[in-house]
Design a protein that fits this description.
Elements: H1 3-19, E1 21-31, E2 35-44, E3 59-64, E4 67-73, E5 81-90, E6 93-102, E7 114-124, H2 130-134, E8 138-140, E9 153-161, E10 166-173, H3 182-188, E11 194-203, E12 209-214, E13 220-222, E14 227-228, E15 231-236, E16 243-244, E17 252-253, E18 257-259, H4 269-273, H5 276-287, E19 307-317, E20 319-327, E21 333-335, E22 349-356, E23 366-375, H6 382-386, E24 392-402, E25 421-424, E26 428-433
Parallel strand pairs: 8-15, 9-18
Antiparallel strand pairs: 1-6, 2-5, 2-7, 3-4, 3-6, 8-17, 9-10, 10-11, 11-12, 12-13, 14-15, 15-16, 19-22, 19-24, 20-21, 20-23, 23-26, 24-25
Length: about 450
């Protein structure tokens, strides 16, 4: 989309929104040099709840120097919450911030927004995080999510690879409306949030940058879209939250990316560090009718507090891994894969999976945990069959085993004593045994 057309569209959208807008805050701030401006917005929306249809959230719209910058969906509801945001590049001098209550985009039962604090900071080029912040994407909403409070960006993080001077950006969405079936999400990813790599930017000699983003069907695609200063403008384009550098949307988001190293931890560790994400994840499942009492694979799942969550580091060689858990007094082993081949973990690295229990999960009820290594897929061809002999799972670490509490927050992990082991296909080993089992 041409820049002029995009700006015209956004201007029209802003003019329409002002009809139903109420100014909540106006504030001046200044920069002594060219900087990136950041905002920690402590706000709440009385009477709203991410769990309740028609009362999901209020929306605040942010203007910088009189121009529309972004919308903030207050998914934390009536609770005071700090929304960490980018305000973009600012020149030396004085600037203005305005925040409106956007009635048009807010849920029907939302009556307003209360702002407790709006803390603005600026970071110049000498700041160690300047490049990471300055090149972070601004994300336009998928049009079919606007007004539905679905698949919203909860937070973002960045990684930095020093060897090739590359910044990578990932967004954690509240869910995905398409793609992987819900039961499979829990089996293969250990969550119903959607954690998606957006793009990577390599900064070359002289500051020249080149970016690759995750296009539809998870294809790496050369970025050829528009920049706002150095911020790539990205559009959420598919129901499983892949992206495009072209599009049209009346809402956009600019979450501040936080530093993270996914080479030493699972991506879900970022959720553990911000445990409120689990509550938002659960509330969206409940609101969308995806939580049921029946325990069966499909588009609906059981209460998220009835699962055991596993964080494992393993390398699969033509193999796939699954986990099983046994409770005290229960003769049945509960498996992560449900006996379904493509629910097993065939990717290598640090990952999450879960196993569903027959009742509310309590960490003290877990008696034994085992890991099984199987052949990946369904070998049919001569070449596929020939690889079976060397199939193995190199189980390097079991980092965490935990359950969610009544408040949907992750509890303490089981105390684990585990030594790395290499398993051949068809083998199963115990990784935990409760010394007080009965």
């Amino acid at each position: 989309m041409k820049s002029s057309a995009l700006h015209a569209f956004l201007l029209a959208a802003c003019l329409l929104s002002t009809v139903s807008a109420q100014t909540l805050l106006e504030k001046k701030f200044s920069a002594t040099a060219e900087s990136e401006a950041l905002l920690d917005l402590t706000a709440s929306a009385p009477g709203t709840s991410w769990r309740e249809r028609g009362a999901e959230a209020a929306v605040a719209t942010i203007y910088v120097d009189g121009r529309y910058h972004q919308d903030v969906i207050l998914f934390a509801g009536a609770q005071d919450f700090i929304y960490q945001l980018m305000l973009g590049r600012v020149a030396p001098g004085e600037h203005s911030l305005r925040i409106d209550f956007n009635r048009k985009q807010s849920a029907a039962k939302a009556t307003g927004v209360q702002i407790r604090e709006a803390k603005i900071t600026t970071i110049g080029r000498e700041h160690p995080e300047f490049q990471a912040i300055a090149r972070a994407p601004i994300l336009y909403a998928r049009p079919d999510t606007i007004g539905k409070f679905s698949d919203v960006p909860l937070m973002a993080y960045y990684e930095f690879a020093r060897d090739d001077n590359r910044f990578s950006y990932t967004v954690i969405f509240s869910n995905e409306d398409g793609g992987t079936q819900t039961t499979a999400l829990m089996a293969r990813w250990g969550r119903t949030t959607d954690i998606e790599w957006v793009l990577g930017t390599r900064v070359g000699i002289g500051g020249k940058a080149s970016s690759i983003f995750q296009g539809a069907d998870h294809k790496d695609t050369q970025f050829a879209g528009k920049l706002e200063a150095d911020h790539p403008l990205m559009f959420t384009a598919t129901v499983n939250n892949n992206f495009s550098d072209q599009g049209l949307s009346e809402m956009r988001f600019a979450p501040r990316p936080l530093a993270f190293d996914a080479t030493v931890a699972s991506r879900e560790e970022m959720m553990d560090r911000h445990p409120w994400t689990y509550r938002v994840m659960a509330d969206e499942m409940i609101r969308e009718g995806k939580i049921i009492e029946e325990r069966k694979p499909g588009p609906q799942i059981n209460d998220l507090r009835n699962y055991v969550y596993f964080d494992i580091d393993s390398v699969q060689m033509d193999s796939a891994l699954s986990v099983a858990v046994k409770l005290k007094g229960d003769p049945v082993w509960r498996t992560s894969d449900w006996g379904i081949a493509n629910y097993k973990i065939d990717r290598s690295g640090i990952f999450r999976t879960t196993a569903l229990l027959p009742k509310r999960a309590r960490i003290e009820d877990i008696e034994r945990v085992a890991v099984r290594c199987d052949v990946a897929g369904n070998p049919k061809t001569k070449a596929e069959v020939s690889r079976i002999a060397n199939a193995n799972c190199d189980l390097r670490a079991v980092n965490k085993i935990f359950v969610l509490g009544d408040d949907y927050q992750p509890g303490a992990s089981l105390k684990l004593s585990f030594q790395p082991v290499k398993m051949r296909f068809g083998e199963m080993i115990e990784i935990y045994e409760n010394a007080t089992k009965r």
